[in-house]
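Continuing the batch. This is chain 6 of the set; chains 1 through 5 are on the previous pages. Same settings as before, nothing changed between runs. Recording input and output for traceability.
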Amino acid sequence: MGVEKRVALVTGGAQGIGRATVLALARAGADVAVADLDVERARLTAGEARALGGRVAVLQVDVSNWPSVEQMFRSSMGELGRVDILVNCAGAIGSAKGLDVSEREWDRIVDVNLKGTFLCCKVAVPSMVERGWGRVVNIASLAAFSGSITGDLPYAASKAGVVAFTKTLAKEVAPKGVNVNAIAPGPIDTEFQTRAGGMTREELRSRSAARVPVGRIGTPEDIAGVVVFLTSEAAGFVTGATIDVNGGALMR
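Output for chain 6:
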């Protein structure tokens, strides 16, 4: 697939989609930096990735904080030498419904989901441009197009912002050898979505399967496989796209 010997930086890499992405990229031959606010869980994921071969770094980061993002990038460069691939998986979700969300909660979710994507691109993309090759994958959401089924306004708004950000950045850097794409997952079997829906894993699987044409909830590996494709040479003519990975829950 063409990611062998590339260096990938994955935010939110400790669990869920981020963890699956780290392992998929490592399995495909990439060296990987696992960046997450939860550094202990990041170390566990890194241990799994090392067992697959290649170099692995563990980095702590708050993607909503510029000094923290700068330090993450410096550490990644120091340990692995460069960043060829950036996958923005770090995300936040809320529990308030509609306009009941507080200003503080709005800011937290938008800062992680949208500002965090911007800050990580701001720190990593210039070095890709300088080398004339790079891949960026931003994790958006089905909610960017259909709205949040739980009424989470800042989550849906921030993910729609990620889609627009992806298109705009892609136009800027495409002539310089850097492709920028997004993935919009549908319902995925993760702790993240279980918390968002306020339900058990079994309830999440059952309810999601009922509204997904393929008849099942998605897995983190379903998303990770598309990440590997988008970061490979096989996707060299794909940029500015948002790929729906939702089992047919939304067909555009």
